[in-house]
Specification:
The structure is a homotetramer of 339-residue chains. The model of chain A has no long low-confidence stretch (mean pLDDT 96). Helices cover 26% and strands 30% of the residues of chain A. By secondary structure, chain A is an alpha/beta fold.
């Protein structure tokens, strides 16, 4: 096969198929993908064939947290980029609508986003993408570290939307990959050592290894926080977390899970809390790569499993079979270097 | 009586009593009160003897939207202030805590606020207050206009917290006094002509008289908004209003009523909406007085009833007996000039 | 001639020539231009053949403040746009660089801007432009009003960069077209009635007609301001204006003229003043058109002279020959309707 | 002597005198001072007897970067504070004026600031200060570290005023104590490793010891920066530094020296640079103490000399006699622990 790819046909139906090798259009680069992380949304598509109104009608290559090497360029792109290790920002916006022109391109209604039906994703040998969204990785980064710029971007965006700044006391609910990365990002921005909560001892232990403070979810928190990054998707985590906020506290809703959450109006008004939703990210990749490169954010210890491309289905199910799993990484071109 | 005052003893029990005339302490002024507006919170204390954890245990003078004339000053205050018409900002914060030092003095945990138990309010002939919180009214303002700086402040604060700016499309749910004032404030800040919704034809007609656009509450809104100022306290208004918001829309929760509201997580995340509570106001009085003085905010047409001090109880109940009521104003020192 | 255009060959050498009618490329519209305002930069190119490093080496169509009617569309553009009156935003950025993706597209190093060598401008019968930069004018606007969205945008941007908000006391130095428009924009944003200074009695009288307060430049200002919009380019205006600022005052440098200005360090530090340069604008056109449409900004009374296309050279020199001139407007397709 | 103090009588005239031990007024604490850093302004008063309009007419205790132990409290202060190590924020504002109520208390026109004539400073055994401005030091801090919260605050404020955030490329001109601390603060906020310039090899070597990147002042900088913290007071440093800024770059003017600086208008406009003055700080002490406590900002290696109180004059002159000096610290109560 010239371009083996992991294609989702429907719930519990992933097939490794050959796809045509794309040609880079003008202003695009062609990337030989090396590593692709598995995200909760990938798992959700695998399990249910849909996320809300996004339905997998036609076979779709899955995966969107990816990095690889530039192997060809389209017209208008500097040929010197060939050979670069790049992290692929998976959503390419229209750059013409109001949201784009204001710099909020994550809210572009015409964005083309990997592995969001009907757009193909990146668990594939070769992917073409706009050159401006193939971000050059600092020297020394591995491909899987570069691929992790995607979930790190989610953490950066959550921190930006909730205006995390130096000295803030930050609470993170949910010690999955996003929570563990968001906690490290908050710390890199000068926040006090963040506190992260979860129900899993394994995850809390990993959080401590990463230098975060931890508490079992549901425990009464005796301290006060300025910011809550809700990364669990659990309604109870939001409710409890908000009670722990100081006046003027800020909340970012990152985790998906509950369809609705109940807001205590008197609390939100009396303390003038602000709550903001978080949808993907914008203008985060350069910072994400830098934080990974400087060591401020350790992504390697968030990766618990590594698979070859042909084992993509196992990567999609490891979260259910192994309670000690966080991020699974698929190595598309080569055998995984460690596992 | 030297200092007749409207004193709340408990639910449905307001008495006109003589109270000692206060002496202005250092840095205070003594104000001969002229007019005091009745707020929903006053009505709530009158009906229930409490608001949440704030309970009227001891007799308490009611009212906090007040203006009058400086008749004496304490040490450290310029005697030239005697004779000034002033609007009284009813909450005097500690000015020492973190919230105060950061400029968020509305969140001061030690604030002393008129007519919040056990602090006396201002339906009284004479009130002493810190000079810095007795704001000089621009020339030409009447006392009742100056008293309206309080609810106008709520509108300003809601607009600031939701970052209303020129060109914003603003939706206001609830055409009570706060909604009608907030709508005019938003317009004064350069927003497109705001749209206000209510269930009352009377209120909607008044909104149109004030130059606002209107729609019956519950009607499907066919346009898109950038900001929602929720001033009704109705959960359905919030739910419907949020659906009408554009990506990156902002919501201020102003109205009180529902204990809890349900947030549609997918909506808040997918459009990156932000929701903030509003608690009183800070640094709004000078602007409120200016907007009233310039005519940008018409407060007079929001006042529907005027009473003498001895009729304070009627002022507190007019909202229930007259469906065509908005703001009731109590004239403390003299007979009301018009009614 | 099918596409008569005003072409600058060098200093004092403007010729009316026929140019090929452009074909709209994909995502472009073809606009039949109706009116084009003359800007100080156009005059500067006419007088000197250059502005700093931008030199008119090859003949270049002049003009960039333009409006007209869509007469054709390229692929990907809704054909219903044909017939729309549009204001042309004259700078089309790359939308790929960091500045663009952050929403600061005015700072795009690859922007293509009308009448900035070697890019042709818009004093021409027909111009093609990206559809997203041809802003639909609200109904009722005339073409010359729509063309004025360009200088109004400069005023909006100056106000945004200096964070003008409700209640601000705003000083504008220089009552040329930009100053007169910026003053009205500040007022529309809720600022106190701005004060504008100039050396010309004619300009000050016009400012008063527009509802602004005025003072002769060089007069000692006895009041204090929060914001200075320096629109004269005179170093003395900046120096004097900054002295009139309150602590935390903000300055926008809009006017061009002096190569350097001298900052009084003790003043800037002691009052924590902030000074920002202003370069064109971003995301201002919709608001500009709305402010013109609502009447908040009167652009018509800023236009003092109107010329036919063949008289473009007179339009470029009227500022020197007539002291009662402000904005000159060139009617490209038809005889000017009034003058 | 019960309260020996370093009193400045005029240029080159410092005397160690006994002063009455102050009694803490209500809401004040009495602090037994342990360590006081010498600031450039102290040296300036010593050399010239004045700074601009502030003239030492009457003998004045000098020094304002101080820390010590609470030994008594006034009415209204928790007696448990006795025994606390505190850093003294040297400026106590009025908390009543507009600047204070907005949270910009550093701009309070009525601020009472240590060692600014006619207010006494803190090189003294005992000082009384408002309790809210005696900031409790985290456990483990030494007195001299706590005293350094003052210059660290200057660095925090410069970073806040220029909006330093994660990923910013920060240039600092001037590797004196303020520059060395500001550079570390910027790094703690997530900036890329800042680059600092100076003419002194000694200072640059110290900067490298602190983990900063360095360049000789006047060298052509080949990289581009987002933020310039000008800490040298040299006009040439500002001019050169601004040329190295990217579009939308921000400048904080921290250093004092030049009375005026020349701004290149075309540069400021073309890149939309913003320049802000910095005057002391507000709401920085808790963060300063935390950054020192966490080790994010190393203050100890910025202290090069330590003196006993009776040697205050030597502390004031060491900068002239020893080129390897940075911060001199005066130990008021005890012999310096190391030197």
């Amino acid at each position: 096969m010239l371009n083996p790819s992991a294609v989702l046909y429907g719930p519990h139906d992933v097939r490794i198929e050959d796809r045509p090798v794309p040609k880079p259009a003008p202003n695009q680069v062609l990337v030989e993908i090396a590593a692709v992380g598995i995200c909760g949304s990938d798992v959700h598509y695998y399990e249910h064939g849909r996320i809300g109104g996004y339905v997998v009608h036609d076979p779709m290559i899955i995966g969107h947290e990816s990095a690889g090497t530039v192997v060809d360029v389209g017209d208008g792109v500097d040929r010197n980029r060939i050979g670069e290790l790049v992290a692929l920002e998976p959503g390419v916006p229209c750059r013409t609508c109001t949201q784009c022109l204001w710099g909020r391109y994550n809210l572009c209604p015409r964005v083309v986003f990997f592995a969001t039906p009907p757009v193909d994703g990146s668990i594939s040998h070769y992917v073409a993408i706009e050159a401006a969204f193939a971000h050059s990785a600092p020297s020394g980064l591995t491909a899987e570290e570069a691929a992790m710029a995607e979930p790190v971007s989610v953490g950066i965006w959550a921190a930006r939307k909730s205006a995390v700044t130096a000295g803030d006391r930050v609470l993170i609910t949910g010690a999955g990959p996003i929570g563990l990365l968001a906690g490290q990002v908050a710390r890199a921005l000068g926040a006090d050592t963040p506190l992260i909560t979860d129900v899993s001892d394994f995850r809390l232990a990993r959080a401590r290894d990463l230098g975060l403070r931890t508490a079992l979810a549901g425990t009464l928190l005796e301290e006060e926080f300025d910011v809550l990054l809700e990364c669990s998707g659990a309604a109870a985590a939001l409710t409890g977390g908000m009670r722990a906020l100081a006046p003027a506290g800020r909340v970012a809703l990152v985790g998906m899970g509950a369809d609705t959450v109940t807001l205590d109006v008197a609390l939100v008004q009396g303390r003038e809390l602000s709550v903001t939703g978080v949808f993907r990210y914008a203008n985060t990749y350069p910072l994400a790569l830098q934080l990974i490169s400087s060591g401020a954010v350790n992504v390697t210890d968030v990766i618990t499993h590594r698979f070859a491309l042909q084992d993509t289905e196992r990567a999609l199910t490891i979260g259910q079979t192994d309670r000690s799993s966080l991020k699974a990484m698929v190595y598309t071109a080569t055998a995984p270097s460690r596992s």
